Amino acid sequence: MNMFPEDFAWGASTAAYQIEGGWDADGKGESIWDAFCHRDDSSVFERHTGDVSCNSYHLWEEDLRCIEELGLTHYRLSLSWSRLLPDGTTGHVNQQGVRYYNQVLDGLLARGVTPMVTLYHFDLPQALQDRGGWQSADTPALFDAYARFCFGAFGDRVRLWITLNEPYVCAKLGHEDGLHAPGVRGAAYRAGHHMLRAHALAWHSYDAGYRRAQGGLVSMAINSDWAEPEDADSAEDAAAAARYLAFSLGWFAWPLFVSGDYPEVMRAAVDARLPRFSGVQPAVLGTADFFALNYYTARKVRSVGVDGGAPSMKKDLGAEGVVDPAWPLCGLPWLAVAPHGLRQLLKYIKATFNHPAVYITENGFAQTGPVLMEDGERAAFYRETVGEVAKAIEEDGVDVRGYFAWSLLDNFEWTDGYGARFGLFHVDFSDDERARTMYRSGREYAAIISKHRSRSRAHRELTSS
Ligand code: PNW
């Protein structure tokens, strides 16, 4: 009857560049997203920037109020690397940045909310981009130094760490398509490889230097669509769907959970352009203490051949995903509503990665166009999605430990700027106060949390008496 464990994490997520603003406040250094949005030829929707955004750098107490109002047990936030280390290195620490995150973390703990902290959510210090960024083999060690700095500064209060958010999106959109910062093309595999090495270094640093004293867990947030064959009877489409999963989820999950190397199908298709792990120290295999999944949508997949032309990821993949016309769209062309795919992906993760503990670190639904405060569709989406998670736990036996909605607030949605609203709270970006107002979907999520928490409490009392 839809029973969640009593210690289940009910959360919401945000990311520094998307909510903080204060892009050059109090000694913060420039990040690649600052630079990308400030370009004269910026490709971001209506040339929006994260310069002010929700102004959480100054209005963080408002965020805490929103978190309390929802009744969240957990809150996932990210740290801005260039706010803490303006030139990306530990040579100079910005103490005002440290103070900012101390206030936020202490405020969460004072309210009984457990923080989950992401070290890197797309916002590399521009100073490191100038030295090659994720294309450079020196960046993993610089990330590791940053990570150790954060474990030291904040680790006494943080038990759940995410090193990197969605290396797939950073590699594919930032280093293949050029749609995200830093706007590079043709370097996705190289960038992805260095992100995996960065993650592994940081995990080993935590393991060797901090785990014993701090007792936390470290993972990397991996995003993937669910993929199913377009024609259920076609062996070719089935193989294409398997490739689709291998090139998204598998790209980062295989090295961490399965073999210390990329999936075989990737190796076979990409060949020499896919970097090798041989001789890489420390090992990448085994460097995730739980599975962190960002899930948004699903695709029907068919096999396609791309003839001639330059090498590309599309050509390597040899498959194409389309949206089932039965799945409603929500304003963003890539985001078809497909809650069933989350349960399928959770089952796949249990079977493929040896039954890991799973946190769903992001999941959500956007609105575009005129603001709809009574967003009944999104309320229904959350109800249905949580139902799918319940089935995954109860009927499929997946070890799901938590669910984080994306996002706490409407915020800067990368190339879509403020044109796409993912918040449980509406933010009025035309108002200096950046007033936060709960959507109907926020009330729905709050009700879901309160119902399940009292149900599992009652269940425990019943079974322990
Ligand atoms: C995730 N796509 O990114 C990010 O982790 C969040 O920062 C973001 O706001 C959220 O999903 C909603 O988009 C994605 O184009 C960005 O397929 C782009 C895509 C997918 C995920």
Top keywords for this entry?
alpha/beta; 42% helix; Glyco_hydro_1_AS; eight-stranded parallel beta barrel; TIM Barrel; glycosidase; 465 residues; binds 4-nitrophenyl beta-D-glucopyranoside
Give a quick precis of the structure.
This is Glucosidase, beta, acid 3 (gene/pseudogene). This protein has 465 residues and is of the alpha/beta class.
Total number of strands: 15
Amino-to-carboxy terminus distance: 21 Å
Report the total helices: 16
CATH topology: TIM Barrel
Name given to the CATH architecture: Alpha-Beta Barrel
Can you list the ligands bound to this structure? Answer: 4-nitrophenyl beta-D-glucopyranoside
Supply Rg: 21 Å
How many structural domains are formed by the residues? Answer: 1
* Level-1 CATH class name: Alpha Beta
Helix content: 40-55%
Sheet of most strands:
8 strands, parallel, barrel
What topology, given as strand order, has the largest sheet? Answer: 1-2-3-4-5-7-10-12
Low-confidence runs: none
